[in-house]
Model the fold of this input.
Amino acid sequence: MASDLIASELVVPAADGYPLGVTHVAPSGPAQGRLIVAGATGVPQRFYARFARFAAAQGIAVWMLDYRGVGASRPASLRDFRMDYLDWARLDLAALLDHVDGRGDGPLWMVGHSFGGHAIGLLPGHERIQRVVTFATGAGWHGWMPPLERLRVQFLWRVMGPLLVSATGYLAWSRLGLGEDLPRDLFHQWRRWCRWPRYFFEDPELPGLAEQFAEVRMPIRAVNALDDHWAPPASRDAFMAQYRNAPVDAVTLDPRKLGLRNIGHMGYFRPQALALWEDTLAWLRGLGTDATSAVTRP
Done:
């Protein structure tokens, strides 16, 4: 029962020693698997707590983290905080993978939301993960978005974002109601990569990324909703094509066929998405079922 579950708050040092806030949700009985939840940019781990408790109630041990600069891993001030966006995968998530890999037996899985799907190909030791499900992972380019969203995003990159960073020393994302505040270095990198249809794979300052992503070989299920304006299916396909040696199962969801008003970029982890959670855990276990009737494939 969910009431029997125990959630423990931990501090796990990143690969460079930076202290990371981590939550472990233990199942009430013996663990049948281990699951890492890798969140989206600017989304704190508490947003995934319901999903984590649901998975733990099904016998899966779950770990979540806040990347450096966010939530429980935020420093006293972001104004002078410096980092590389890729630190989230190469240093933070890598340390959590090492932590989880050393605790318990059984299969090791990952669920990634948006950036969490980018992180797989950046993650040292990714070969230890047996299966991955991604939600809302895309290439970030405004050209993949619907017309109105393109205008909003370009206003954010060109006007509002720079003004906020100039005034505060960081991206005061919370003032826009878009999530946690973010370090300025991350904002500048993110804006730069979103200039290109294939995201950071087109950045001349990051040679070798395509070859690195080609090393990923575990099965990946990439789930995106038709009404996800930040990461529609075309954006997903542009990014996931870089996992060219991994079997990628691209799943497109129509919220209307699920009886949902919307899913968008965040609805995959809200309580209304229970059927998606059931389907995700079944797929991670290798059962290969589609619990929803709204699944389509390109």
Notes: The CA atoms of residues 141 and 224 lie 16 Å apart. The two ends are 38 Å apart (CA to CA). The helical segments are 49-57, 87-101, 115-118, 147-168, 184-193, 209-213, 233-240, 274-284.
